[in-house]
Specification:
This protein has a single domain (2-185), classed as Flavodoxin domain (Rossmann fold). Helices cover 37% and strands 23% of the residues. The chain has helices at residues 15-29, 61-72, 89-96, 121-133, 162-182; strands at residues 2-7, 33-38, 75-81, 107-113, 137-145, 150-153, 156-159. The strands form 2 sheets. Strands 2-1-3-4-5 form a 5-stranded parallel beta sheet, sandwiched between helices. Helix 1 links the parallel strand 1 (2-7) and strand 2 (33-38). The chain is globular, with a radius of gyration of 16 Å. It binds flavin mononucleotide. Flavin mononucleotide (FMN) binds next to helix 1. Flavin mononucleotide is lined by residues 9, 11, 14-16, 81-85, 113-117.
């Protein structure tokens, strides 16, 4: 099983990225293969409608690689900061890069970070119809963090809230079990 993790923050010290890095480690500890696509490091150009149905011909190598990684993944974790009570434009652009049914019969976990309040609800809920439109299944459990869930360790931040870690375990178990149920449909 391979999970593609997509990080939708361009922030230098992004908590969304730290949250997804933790999720990546938990997945790997359960012998799940992962690809971590950090949109701040592997940027995608603005989606061009002319290539919507033929991304293999796209002139940008990152786009071709991204679409291939999506094709070969069995499941996904999408992470976004809270931006204007929604999810980030950079993540929407990545999803707009994908052809129709790119997530067909695949499980998707949604996570979010906001600095002040635990308000992952808006980004995660607003991602749900987009996942459905791409023919994927967003699992019902979602994870949201706020700054208080992290501690400073040297120069870095680390996820520290045990309750959030517990929720991440539950999210991952749900993704793994849903992926195995959906396998028969693919
Ligand atoms: C464009 C933009 C819009 C934002 N909108 C909101 C908002 O509506 N509500 C809020 O509480 N925080 C908002 N924030 C703050 C971010 O949620 C916060 O900085 C968060 O830590 C960003 O996640 P990151 O650390 O993963 O980059 C916004 C930040 C930016 C840059």
């Amino acid at each position: 099983m391979q999970v593609l993790i997509i990080s939708g923050s361009l922030g230098k010290r992004s908590c969304t990225r730290i949250l997804l890095t933790y999720i990546n480690e938990v997945l790997q500890s359960k012998n799940v293969d992962t690809i971590f696509w950090d949109l701040s490091k592997r940027a995608l150009p603005m989606a061009i409608p002319e290539f919507h149905t033929r991304q293999e011909k796209h002139p940008n190598e990152n786009v071709r690689k991204f679409v291939n990684d999506v094709k070969s993944a069995d499941a996904f974790i999408l992470g976004s900061p809270l931006y204007h009570d929604s999810y980030s434009g950079v993540l929407k652009n990545a999803l707009d890069t994908l052809p129709n049914e790119a997530l067909l019969h695949k499980a998707v976990g949604l996570v979010s970070h906001s600095s002040n309040v635990r308000s992952c609800v808006a980004p995660c809920n607003q991602l749900r119809p987009v996942v459905r439109s791409l023919a994927g299944y967003a699992v019902h459990l979602q994870v949201g963090t706020t700054d208080a869930d992290y501690i400073q360790v040297g120069d870095n931040l680390m996820l520290s809230n045990p309750k959030v870690k517990e929720r991440i375990e539950m999210l991952i178990d749900e993704i793994i079990s849903m992926t195995s149920s959906l396998k028969s449909m693919n």
